[in-house]
Specification:
heterodimer, A: 591 residues, alpha+beta, six-stranded antiparallel beta sheet, 24 strands, B: 592 residues, six-stranded mixed beta sheet, 10 helices, elongated
Chain lengths: 591, 592
Amino acid sequence: MNSIATAITATFCLVATPAALAQDRPSSKSALRFDHYRDYDELVKECRALAAAHPGLLTYVEIGKSVEGRPMFALILDNPKTGPEADKPAMYIDGNIHGNEINASETVLYTVWYLVENYGKLEPITKLVDRTAFYFVPCANPDGRQNWFDRQNSPHSSRTGYQPTDDDRDGVADEDGPDDLDGDGSIGAMWRRDPNGTHRRSELDPNEMERVDPQPRADGTIRRGDWSMAGMEGIDNDGDGQVNEDGPGGYDMNRNWPAGWNPDHVQGGAGDWPLSYPETDAVGRFIMTKPNIAAGQAYHNTGGMILRGPGVAQRDGLYEGDRSTYEVIGRVGEQMLPGYRLMVIHSDLYPVHGGFVNWLAESLGVITYTNELWTEKRISQNGGDPSPQMRDIWQDHVLFGQTKSPLKEVEHPTLGKVLVGGGNKWSSRIPPAFMLEEECHRNTAFTLFHANEMPRVSMGPSLVRKLGDGLWEVTLELKNDALIPTRTVRAARAKIGVADRVTLTPANGVTIAASGTVERRYDRSFTPERETPRVVVLDEGVPGRGSTFVRFLASGPEGAEIAITYAAEKAIDLKGSVKLVAVDPAEQAKK
Amino acid sequence: MLSVILRCAIASLPLVVVSNTRADDPPPPATPVPAVEPGPMAPAGYPAPDAVRERMQALVKSMQGRASLVTIATSREGRAVQAIVIGDQDMKKKMPAMLLVAGMDGVQLGSTEQLLGALEGALRDNPKLVESMRLYAIPEANPDARAWAIKNKHPRATNARVVDDDRDGASDEDAPADANGDGIVATIRRVAPPGERATHVIDAVDARIVRSANKDKGEVATHQVFVEGGDRDQDGFASEDVAGGVELDRNFPHRWPEFASEAGPYPLSEPESMGIARFVRDHADITTAVVFGRHDTLVHFPDTKDKDSTGRTPVAYLAEDHDLYREFGKFWKESTKIEKSDHTDLAGSLVLWLADHRGIAAVAANGWTRPEVPKPPESKEDGPKEGEPKPETPKETGDGEQSAWLTLSEKVYRGGFIEWKPAQHPFYGACEIGGFAPFFRESPTIAQARELGARTAPFLTALAAKRARIEASEPKVTPLANGLAQIEFRIVNAGNMPTVTEMGRITGAVPPVIVRLIDPKSGKGLVPETVLSGRPVNKIDRLPASESREFTWIVRLPAGGAVDIATSGPTFDTIIRTATSTNNSTSTGASK
């Protein structure tokens, strides 16, 4: 952890801590820049180029097609020279399932780039890459992303996929979306003159509306504004008397996963059933073929959060036993990500049925977080919530007005004259280009810390006792130096996947009489394995930062050898052996 | 939003009857049902998937162009799951549809027969049925399970997904099997070896019965019971990894039993269940559905008003819909005379998904429970003659249900029970193999299933007579000043069922009835500026039977001008009424 923390501070000389070191930008094999946002087509191009530049390390695989026919792809990072991909614990990372949350893909791309770029250069990265695999889906919603760039949008629109959906149930799909009335390329708010208005034009900036203080004056008179909001920019395209009620798509693919999934009347935008969209289906199928996934991360925006499940209170019990693992990794994340807080989705944010991280955590037993990227706290020097004045300075003098359009009067077919403008689609949810790289890096650092805590199992020294009459008691230690157990408590309790197994292969003349596990090395009793003493099934795996002790009784001549293999879905398989020669690790440690 | 007037009372506007065929005509008399001999036990005589398909094809042929087969899925073993679509094939005329599903597993073999028999009977009894209702029938939803069960003469609930039930990295390697070479996979019982937990006792009155120990009576368990099989993977457990993986009727999204064995890795993970789900989603005209199989909601109405953990979806049926479902139950009991059913867990079932997620009035029909035991011939009033010993009343066993089955096996069936025979089993050692024959208790014989099908036909006819019927009034036009006119209009549900269940209204999965104002010249909706009051497009999410909705608009309608009012919905052809403005007084329009 210390070395990682140093690496983070070392990369940025901006951070004025005593530990900060100046460092040149490392020379690049691929000239990727993180000072702008890419549309989907460019993202695909860059990812293909990155894979092409790192053969034997990074592979581009197509995993499906989006509704509008765009390729869905994954990048697999694995060094086959250090063992088969399926044998290594793997981290799955994706982003941008909400099409408007574009900085999520940039963050995933940065992580890929940082790993391949620094493999062989930075020791912690090289070690990590050599012992793990990574699966990246930089963009889980290609249509949402591309359309966010191509069409007129607000910061919040194009969250959906683009399967035509009849939101207003009139038999026609997607026929009344928002319209860009002022031609600024974005969808803003519409304001109408109103003698009982809730807002007035700001004195500080007439291009902004400010809410009129609802509190009566001292003399009891009430303040009234002269403007009220009249919805988002748009007209009644389908003539049904409503505005913008059936835009493109209109669902939420992050409510479409098979963990506590519920239909639309419970969870808006959930889709017809779990994995009902080609995009979620493609990602879901890809993940289900990778039982070695031991850590998960999904990127969203916005608000500066490290979120974990459950999405609803009723599923809280599913995290029992794994909470401390979530807590430790998440708290380190808070240190790495200024302004970010570790939160629980249902209690700290809002209820979510059928969320992606919930599926990974609850149904697949994988320690998974969602980061809500970017927080406006980063605007102000002291990291607090920016005041309206600070926001003005930020928009006008730091961003030079790039994220807002002046209020402009336009003629609306049914509302008459309206003012349109305000924050454009680039405002509020994503960092400005000059802060993007730092966001990407800090979040990458957090996920790499998480990845490094995937099971690192080794065989510890065995305790071998001579019991006489050719009988030996052997206690084998399987030690996990990482925080994440080889089988999470969730996986063990719900019997997800295949349990870890230790197989004993004795030399000729040696028999294994009984085997099982003991809680501590020097415990006397153990529950013998029911099936066959040669195979010890470890349903609970090897705990995080802890050990599992396998005990067996063998009979055979002194010095005979027993070969041992350890097989696990989420840890590298091990081979070892033990000799029937009395040895006590505690005694050895003294020497 | 503005001035749509919603009143329930029917005003004095004239109503025009839209269709000539009254859907709620009383159903014709039921097909007479002959008493049947049960005949040989299932699966004898049950058609395998190929024969089922032939029968479906024959039914299609008999409909002379008004039916077809549609493949809705391909099973894991490559068999086609097919739906029979009955009704006008050009699909031009919109009408309500009924969905029938059976053969969800290889246990309730009779369900396929019951569905097909009932369907054939209903079509024969009531040939006009197809003119007012479309029928979709999926008689064999799980062909792989049925094919396996019929071939292996053993019930199988699951489809052919390969599942590592015992999680040892290998799949389906230790399935139940015939151990004593009699060709039947039956039951093994043995005295529990010393130190092993015993679970059962042999009944003191009838040694054929092996049952749970009755602790209240001080009984102590002595025996263990297993499915006949071995330990082919030599892991110390017998028959623990059976062929086949997922029960379709536990694989649907409502109350899906996550992590329960055989419920699938996620809802609709199976091609067969997904095929049904897609078919349902793509047919918005389905208003009612019957799932034949292990579940029953008709005899034992799931009489709970509880909601699931979200508090927004019922555990079974929404309280507001209970009356409708109880009426369906009444039809069932009247038609089939079935008064008995077994309790089953509806979690993840097709019927609940149809009712609670798709808003369809769906019921589950179980045609098979233990038949009544024939009563012994009545003893004469005067009792035993003098001098004769008084006949002993047989002592009761500790398990009335098993006793009844044994009696049925002796008196009605042949071969329902396999006498226990001592055996030396390689895994279980000294034991007995025997017990109830597979399918004896699980499934009717083919003859019984056919009889059940005939008895079920009137139920389908009665269900088909339940439907909403939307009628539209002639609009009343009152000219106002300056080329304005007020239009009043009303629709009524003249049928005997709501347009959608209350649960359907809540789910929003069923398209609403829509009333729109249309410019007759362009055929397009009136531009909003023309409509000064009232909505140009109105959606009625639910209209209960005998209730009406009224609409009042004020529109720009110069003298001689006309506005069309189009009423449309998923289960009826669009009704158009024209509102015409005349110079002078109030007028009503004419229908088109």
